[in-house]
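WP5 quarterly update. Target: Programmed cell death 6 interacting protein. Source organism: Cyprinus carpio. Length: 759 aa.
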Amino acid sequence: MATFISVPLKKSSEVDLVKPLSKFVTSTYPPGEEQTEYLRAVEELNKLRKSALGRPLDKHESSLEILLRYYDQLCAIEPKFPFPELCLTFTWKDAFDKGSLFGGSVKLGDGAFAHIKDTVLSALNREPTMDISPETVGTLSQIMLSQAQEVFVLKATADKMKDAIVAKLANQAADYYGDAFKQCQYKENLPKEVLPVLAAKHCMMQATAELRQSALANQKKKFGEEIARLQHATELVKTAASRYDEYVNVKDLSDKINRALTAAKKDNDFIYHDRVPEVKDLEPIGKASLVKATAVQTPLSQKFSDLFEKMVPMAVQQSVSAANSRKADTVNRLIGSMREATNLCNGVLASLNLPAALEDLSGEAVPQSILEKSRAVVQQGGLQSIEQLIKDLPELLQRNREILDESFKMLDDEEATDNELRAKFNQRWNRTPSGDLYKPLRAEGNNFRNVLDKAVQADQVVKERYTAHCEMIALLCKPENELSAAIPSANPAKTLQASEVVNVLRAQLAQLDEVKREREVLEGEVKSVTVDMTTKFLTALAQDGAINEEALTASELETRYGSHTQRVQQNLRRQEELLSQIQVSHQEFSALKQSNSEANNREEVLKKLASAHDSYIEISSNTKEGTKFYNDLTEILLKFQNKCSDIVFARKTERDELLKELQQSIAREPSAPSFNVPSYQSNTPAPAPGGPTPAPRTAKPQPPARPPPPNITPQVASTSAPISTPVPPGSTNPPPVAPPTGPSQAQGPPYPTYQGYPG
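Structure tokens (predicted):
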């Protein structure tokens, strides 16, 4: 009786895991011990796959252990690698296919990792092979359930358990086999021996149940019922023996039933004379199920050890990335507000000609602050250094545009080819359209294009600022004697050195310098704060199964940067108060000075020189920032280009394989004038109702034609998160405003506000 149906192992083609996984590791983790460990783990994973799938396995526990370890490792790394983006194609052959015309696809790029998560059909980008179609998988599950129940029947029989228990177990097994038989009746892809074995097992389990129930009838003195059940059991085993003897052996069971029937008839004929009822009038035998389909719980192997144990899941990696972006926004906001305040301060002082006005009471010599500004500009390379940097920016921009354009061209060319083949082969070209698959990449590429457009705007601001101040910057680069000659002289009518307002202004400027130095210290402290959310995110994922990244990050950032934010706000308020006081004092100072055209001209030039120094520092910083931005973006775009190249190569490989399969399929068909589905496959015949009906061996009816495969819409690869492009806070660009020539309210920076390069 113990003839069990086994499912053959699916065979796979060789897959190189090392290259794509190593590329992800090297691009995600910096060089060091951690990266080395993960690269070594990638090599071990590749070896494990070859051991599990690259060679025939013996029917031994050790072989099962290899498969379990590989499965456990796949489950462990599935959430840690972005497999849809790695363009890995796992090719699996149909376990039941024998190369027949109606056998379905012989091979298929099966989304193995999604399959482990029980989402095979939603992950496949093509029609599934018949062995993993929903109907086939459901049937195989029912067969395994039936055989598991039979094992309990055999165990109960061997342990000599009560007849009532064995009868219920066997009757339940017969029901399970009957259900499996119904589901298999129209499955052409299953091996030919499956259907007769299931029919035979159904008969044999039912006969076993009747045999055991007849013993119970004998114990209850129901001798007519005993004979009726044994006669029914005899008919069942005769059916199994006459039709399915080449698949199962029923001799032992048949002999046991015949002996019991002979003895029962003899006793009833000579002693009891009990009436033998019809089978339909017999009380139904009870049922007892001891089996059920259970969810797979990992790890399956007791010896499993995760090769990537220290690697955090992708959900944590993505949350950490988002948290780092929020941290960068917070840091940029704090530093941006402080730098904006410094620019405002410098602009106000330049418009008031401070502190140069206090140093220029003689009206002849070059003020000391102007000389210091001149030396600072010369030490940083003068006008020539920023001219070269500005000249280099368009070339760097063009290089990045070319990389991005080439990446889009690769996607466009492959998508056009895919569309042509889809139009040619219609429904036979059953893979995910390239247009759907490339949506995440195109969104990422368009994001890069927007980043470049914003960078162009920043370049333009830098150029305009340079044009506005290049003349005065050039003057600052000249020797002291030439600088002095270029500044108009003015002899004041009276000396202001001992004036009280001069002392007040100097004290206020000293306090303002202290406020600026405090900001420099604050900026260093803000930059030095470290925020690592990995542990918190791992804990949240383990406890809740999800990560509320925004709430967790906001709470942590408030804890780390709350005090810094308060100190920055206090500093900005203190500067605002001082600037207001300096403005009032400057008005008093200006009223004491003799107003004449020479003095006004001299003060105007000194204001422009001070403003030119501040602009030079800003332009130099902006051009260096722009150069670094373009160079960093080049590396990112090269990775994006490689990602596009990899997926296009994988699609081309898949395209060539699908074309080959289509050619082979067409070649096997007797004639194929078109690719339309034949009319005889348009409707699905319903299976006959009722229980399993054993078919005669010599006249097996032809099953109806298999209906066309269902149209399964594959899921598009998970979209990778777009790169954020935070822009430092700033207002819209106002037109340049010339400082006043006489005493007036202080002005802000006399140049457009610089938006900055995208992050």
